[in-house]
Structure formats: structure tokens, C-alpha cells
Design brief:
single chain, about 190 residues, mainly beta, Pnp Oxidase, Chain A, 8-stranded antiparallel beta sheet, two-stranded antiparallel ribbon, 3 helices, binds flavin mononucleotide
């Protein structure tokens, strides 16, 4: 069951640097792109950046649609993520090919991916070309999370909420092996 997340906590879904699935839409075209290069950049307003290669179809859709959704997949979805990262939406419908379920977003037009454990809905706030990528800075307008997998922080250490992280090529690590620790401040 998904619940809304306060916008000021949206960064907690990606602080640990997981691979995400970015959905975009323009006119009748919807697309999904795996993105490893993602980071929070501001708290107030809450801004999140994604770096998108100039040759990708997603760049075109994000540029024209001016919105995107950052979806957080778990390790069970790795095969589908890999498919989305090795095919271009220019020629295929990735929702159809992967059987991912599109869900209506709260505040933007691109759909959420129902199978993902968290979603951050963004409107393009700024963009800048750097080398062969374009950096899109998105203002978060809505966020939601699977309520079983979040308790003030994403439970990415739990077996059923293992996110994954790209080392390059076909190599990944999962969040499951990380040990959790809590810092306490004296006085
Ligand atoms: C794990 C993984 C992470 C990736 N990270 C990025 C990224 O951060 N930025 C990017 O532009 N492409 C990234 N890619 C490559 C795109 O996903 C790939 O080029 C994709 O086919 C583009 O799809 P599109 O043309 O439908 O937009 C990644 C691929 C994989 C498998």
C-alpha cells in the first residue's frame, strides 16, 4: 500500500544512491529509462537532478514534456530494469514489453511504475548541457512510498526492500548487505 510522503522527505528515497527508473511522457509517448546518475541538490525547494545522455529518447520526452517521475525499483526488478537500459523507447513501448504497470501520478502527467517501492514526481526547474549529458533539475511536487518499506527512512536494509546500485557494465551491488547504524550526539 502506497502513502504520500512529505515533499521535504523525498530525498530519503534516493540518499543512498540507488538505480532508479525515470518515466517521462510527451503527447502519446511514454518511456522508462534506468538512471544511476541521480542526486538530491536542494532541500528548500526540494530539487533532484538526473543526468540524461543526449542520444536517449527520454531526453527528448523530458525536454518536451517538462516533467518526470523517479521510481525506486528493488532487486527483483533487475531483469526488467536491464531491458529498459538496453533498448530505446524510440522503437518500442517499454511498459508493454516489460509488463510494468503504469499508475496515474498525483501531480504530473508521466505515470508511476506500480511495481516500484517509491515515487518522486518532478517538474523541470532548470536544465543544463554538460558534455554528452543534460542535467535536469526537477522540483519535487509530490512523493509517495510503500508504507511497509518506510519508517521515517527507507528500509533499504530490509530483505523485501533491497534497492540496487550500479558499478558499471553488468555489475551491481544491493543495499541488503549494508549494516545500519545510528549516530547519537552527546549532551
Ligand atoms: C543500470 C543502468 C544505469 C543507467 N544510468 C544512466 C544514466 O544515469 N543516464 C543515462 O542517460 N543513461 C543511463 N543508462 C543508459 C540508458 O538507460 C539507456 O541508454 C537506455 O536504453 C535509454 O533509453 P531511451 O532511449 O528509451 O531513453 C543506464 C543504464 C543502466 C542499465
Amino acid at each position: 500500500m502506497k502513502r504520500e510522503l512529505p515533499i521535504e522527505e523525498a530525498n530519503r528515497l534516493i540518499n543512498h544512491g540507488p538505480v532508479v527508473l525515470v518515466t517521462s511522457l510527451y503527447k502519446d509517448k511514454t518511456n522508462i529509462i534506468p538512471v544511476a546518475w541521480i542526486t538530491p541538490v536542494s532541500i528548500s525547494p526540494m530539487l533532484i537532478a538526473v543526468s540524461i545522455h543526449r542520444d536517449s529518447f527520454s531526453l527528448d520526452l523530458i525536454e518536451k514534456g517538462e516533467e518526470y517521475v523517479v521510481n525506486i525499483p528493488t532487486i527483483e526488478l533487475l531483469d526488467k530494469v536491464n531491458f529498459c537500459g538496453t533498448h530505446s523507447g524510440q522503437r518500442i513501448d517499454k511498459f508493454k514489453e516489460t509488463n510494468f504497470t503504469p499508475l496515474k501520478a498525483h501531480s504530473v502527467r508521466p505515470p508511476l511504475i506500480a511495481e516500484c517501492i517509491g515515487h518522486i514526481e518532478c517538474k523541470v526547474y532548470d536544465k543544463q548541457k554538460f558534455g554528452d549529458h543534460k542535467l535536469f533539475i526537477g522540483a519535487v511536487v509530490s512523493a509517495s512510498v510503500d508504507e511497509d518499506k518506510y519508517d521515517k527512512y527507507l528500509k533499504a536494509f530490509a530483505k523485501e526492500a533491497k534497492t540496487f546500485h550500479h558499478l558499471g557494465g553488468d555489475y551491481y551491488i544491493t543495499s541488503g548487505n549494508l549494516e545500519t547504524t545510528t549516530l547519537s550526539v552527546a549532551g
